[in-house]
Write a structure and sequence with these properties.
By secondary structure, this protein is an alpha/beta fold. The protein folds into two domains: 127 residues, Aspartate Aminotransferase, domain 1, CATH 3.90.1150.10; 239 residues, 3-Layer(aba) Sandwich (Aspartate Aminotransferase, domain 2). The strands form three sheets. A seven-stranded mixed beta sheet has the order 2-8-7-6-5-3-4, sandwiched between helices. A three-stranded antiparallel beta sheet has the order 9-12-11. A two-stranded parallel sheet has the order 1-10. The structure holds pyridoxal-5'-phosphate.
Length: 404
C-alpha cells in the first residue's frame, strides 16, 4: 500500500522574510509545478539582461565589435558554475543546439550506428535518426527498464554497441522518466572500445553539485532549466582529442580559432542571456545557496510525491508508486490512473486541460504506454502547491481516467 504522506517542509522565504516566489515574476494566479520544462528566471537576472539589452541598443556598433570578449567572460563565469575549465566549454543556445553541433561535427562513415536508449529526449532521438539516414546507418535503442539500477543500465547500453557504433548518446537525467543514468560508467566502458559518448545533461546544471561528468567526450547542459539563467543559455563541454573536431553550427568570425574560442563569435545575435546567466547563479547562491536549493527541492518533491500519490491511491485503489532506478532530487514521477495519458498526444492534452481548467502548470509524460505526472520543485515552490494539486487536480484526473 502507498505510504502515508510525509511531513511538509517549512516553506522557503527570501532573506527579507517574504515567500520566496517574490524573487520570481511567475503569475500568482497559477500554481507552477513544471520548472523542469522551461525553467523560470529570477527577477534579478531578468533585470540584468534588460540592462544589457539597453546597453546594446544604446550603441550597437560598440556592442557588437566587443561582443566576443563579453561572451568569453560569460563563458568563464559559466565554467566556474559548472566546475569545469573555461577551455573545455563553449556556449550554445540550448541543449538541442549542443547536440546538433556534435551530430554535425563528427564523421559518420557509411552504415554507422548511433546507440541511445528508450528514455532519450524526442528531439535528440530525431537528430540521431537524421544522421543515421544520411549515412545509411541506423539508430540502436537500448531498452532500459524504468527501475534499472546503474549497473544494469550501463550493461544494457553497452550491449547495443557494435563495431559500427560511431556515437553513444545517453541522458544524464531523463525528461519523461525523471531518472539519472550512470554516464561516467558508460563513458568509461565506451572509451575502452574507442567509442565517443555524448551526454545529454539538459537537466543537470543546478540539480547536481558537479553536473559535468568526469569523462572524455561531449556533454551538453541547459542553464535555463534548474540553474535559472535567462532562456537560450546552454553549455557544450568537450574533453579529449575529439574536442578539436567541434564546429559551430553558424560559421562566423571565430574560424581562425580553436575550440572553444571559435564558438565565442556568433555574428549579429543577441546573446545577452549568456551574459546575464551568472547573475542568476549568484542570486540563488547569495539569497538561498545552491546546496539549500538541492535539499529543499528534494524534501518538497518527497512531500509532494507522497501526498499526491496517497490522494490517487485513495481515489482509485491503484498503486501510484513508481520504482525509479537512480531518482533525482527536484523531479519526480507519480503513476497516473489506468488509461490516462497513454500516448504522447494524450499527455499534452491532459497537461493543457489541467492548466486551462485548474490553473495548475505541470508536466504529464508517457513512457511505455503508461501516463505519469512529473513533478518539479524549485525554491519558489511551497508545500501548498502540491496540496492544491492533490485537492483539485487529482479528482479531475481520476474523473478523466474514468471517462477515457
Ligand atoms: C533530456 C532533454 N534533452 C534535451 C532537451 C532540449 O532542450 P532545449 O529545448 O532547451 O534545447 C530537453 C528539454 O526539455 C530535455 O529534457
Amino acid at each position: 500500500m502507498f505510504p502515508a504522506p510525509l511531513t511538509a517542509p517549512h516553506p522557503m522565504t527570501t532573506p527579507e522574510g517574504e515567500p520566496s516566489i517574490a524573487d520570481w515574476s511567475l503569475t500568482p494566479s497559477k500554481v507552477h509545478l513544471n520548472h523542469g520544462s522551461y525553467g523560470s528566471v529570477p527577477r534579478a537576472a531578468q533585470a540584468m539582461q534588460l540592462s544589457l539589452k539597453e546597453r546594446m541598443d544604446a550603441n550597437p556598433c560598440t556592442w557588437f565589435m566587443g561582443q566576443f570578449e563579453m561572451v568569453a567572460e560569460a563563458r568563464a563565469g559559466i565554467a566556474g558554475f559548472l566546475s569545469v575549465s573555461p577551455q573545455d566549454v563553449a556556449l550554445v543556445h540550448n541543449a538541442s543546439a549542443g547536440v546538433s553541433t556534435v551530430y554535425n561535427s563528427l564523421n559518420f562513415p557509411a552504415g554507422a550506428e548511433i546507440v541511445t536508449t528508450n528514455h532519450a529526449y524526442g528531439a535528440v532521438l530525431q537528430g540521431a535518426e537524421r544522421v543515421a539516414r544520411k549515412c545509411g546507418g541506423r539508430v540502436r535503442i537500448a531498452d532500459i527498464p524504468l527501475n534499472a539500477d546503474a549497473e544494469t543500465a550501463c550493461a544494457l547500453v553497452m550491449a547495443e554497441v557494435t563495431e559500427r557504433t560511431a556515437l553513444i548518446v545517453v541522458d544524464h537525467i531523463t525528461s519523461a522518466t525523471a531518472r539519472a543514468f550512470p554516464v561516467e560508467a558508460i563513458a568509461q566502458a565506451a572509451s575502452v572500445l574507442g567509442v565517443p559518448v555524448l551526454v545529454d545533461g539538459a537537466h543537470a546544471p543546478g540539480v547536481l553539485e558537479f553536473p559535468v561528468p568526469d569523462m572524455e567526450g561531449f556533454w551538453v547542459g541547459n542553464l535555463h532549466k534548474f540553474a535559472c539563467a535567462p532562456r537560450g543559455t546552454a553549455a557544450l563541454v568537450a574533453r579529449g582529442p575529439m574536442a578539436g573536431k567541434l564546429e559551430p553550427l553558424i560559421d562566423s568570425w571565430g574560424f581562425p580559432h580553436a575550440f572553444p574560442e571559435n564558438f565565442d563569435h556568433v555574428g549579429t545575435q543577441d546573446v545577452t542571456s549568456w551574459m546575464a546567466a551568472n547573475k542568476a547563479f549568484d542570486t540563488i547562491q547569495e539569497r538561498y545557496g545552491w546546496a539549500t536549493f538541492r535539499s529543499y527541492a528534494k524534501e518538497l518533491c518527497d512531500y509532494g510525491q507522497s501526498l499526491i500519490g496517497r490522494s490517487f491511491a485513495d481515489a482509485t485503489g491503484e498503486d501510484p508508486h513508481v520504482e525509479v532506478g537512480m531518482p533525482v532530487g527536484p523531479l519526480r514521477l507519480v503513476r497516473l490512473p489506468k488509461g490516462l495519458a497513454t500516448t504522447h498526444e494524450d499527455s499534452h492534452a491532459v497537461r493543457a486541460h489541467i492548466s486551462d481548467q485548474l490553473d495548475i502548470e505541470t508536466a504529464i509524460t508517457t513512457f511505455n504506454g503508461q501516463g505519469f505526472l512529473r513533478l518539479s520543485a524549485h525554491l519558489y515552490n511551497s508545500p501548498q502547491d502540491y496540496e492544491t494539486f492533490a485537492e483539485r487536480a487529482v479528482p479531475e484526473l481520476v474523473r478523466l481516467a474514468r471517462a477515457s
